[in-house]
Amino acid sequence: MTSIAISGASGKLGRMVLQSLRSITKQPLVLLSRTPDALAGISSSLEPRFADFDQVESLQQAMAGVDRLVLISTNAMGPDGIRVRQHRAAIDTAIAAGVSHIVYTSFLKADSSPLSLMTADHATTEAILKESSIGYSILRNAFYDDLARQFLERADHDGRFVHAAGAGGVAYVTRQQCADAAAFAVSDGFSGRRTLDITGRKAITMPELAELARTSRGRSYSPVEVSKEALVERMVAASVPPESAAMLAWIDDGLARGAGGPASQDFERLTGREPPVLAL
Ranges for the NAD(P)-binding domain (predicted)? Predict the structure, then answer.
């Protein structure tokens, strides 16, 4: 029977992928983690294995006998390219071990996003997969719904929240939705190559977000559009550290230029399920 491995299995998304897989398949599951002891006792039918993307020897042992792999992108972001090196090591080792298919958790518009500094590692990892001989499912996940709540946290006592996202919409996803997509993609037997956009059912603009929040929270919200520079000034005046303010305004500006959408039906086609409604 086909053996499926999940990298980062002790992390938040990894555990969600595991639970989703256990609900849809009886295939043997191998749990790859730098902290496999954290997974001990989950189930006698699961096999935790030590795997460190910075230790190739551990990857070789961890992927022995694995046929399909969920490669959850690491959090090792930095200017030295460490995340790409980690991903390349995992992909190269998987190929050498005989893995036939990799499901990679990428980011929406990885190779064309206005937020290229955020997506560059994903674009490079996608290129590594495309230049290899292995089958793959690249899942380009949209922004988590956490971002929507963060926008609303900017609201003052009158419910006004400032932003620099213009008319840009965001097709927010939940972590569970991304986990379900990965679980279906790695267990459905697809053996070719595909790139799927995992998004919410529609790209939600700031006025639409305000209306959704009003309905769900019973409080009036009103978006106030400002320039990127003005947003930084407002945040710094509100005691947000300058570097953090600049980063948040940069994300807003990227959304204004289309980084958050459009919405796709790929999730529904893959899973047979409708994307969840944005919960605020």
Answer: 8-183
Task: Note whether residue 227 is domain-resident.
Answer: no
Is the model's pLDDT at 174 over the cut of 80? yes
Q: What is the DSSP letter of 44?
A: T
Number of domains forming the structure of the chain: 1
Give percent above pLDDT 90 in the chain: 89
pLDDT score at 199: 98
Q: Who's near 68: CB < 8 A, 6+ residues apart?
A: 2, 3, 4, 5, 99, 100, 101, 102, 103, 186, 187
C-alpha to C-alpha distance for 88 and 125, rounded to whole angstroms: 7
Which residue type does 29 have? L
Non-local CB neighbours of 233 within 8 Å, separated by 6+ positions: none
CA atoms within 13 A on the CB side of 227: 3
Range of the domain at 52: 4-140+173-199+261-271
Which pairing describes strands 160-163 and 135-141: parallel, antiparallel, or unpaired?
Answer: unpaired
> In which region does residue 41 sit, left (phi positive, over 0), alpha (psi from -120 to 50) or beta (all else)?
left
Q: Which two tokens stand for residue 96?
A: 């050498």
Number of alpha carbons in the 13 Å side-chain half-sphere of residue 160: 6
**CATH number reported for the structural domain that contains residue 88 in this entry:** 3.40.50.720
Per the listing, tokens 């550290």 go with 241
- Cα–Cα distances in Å, from 86 out to 75, 105, 168, 255? 10, 14, 33, 29
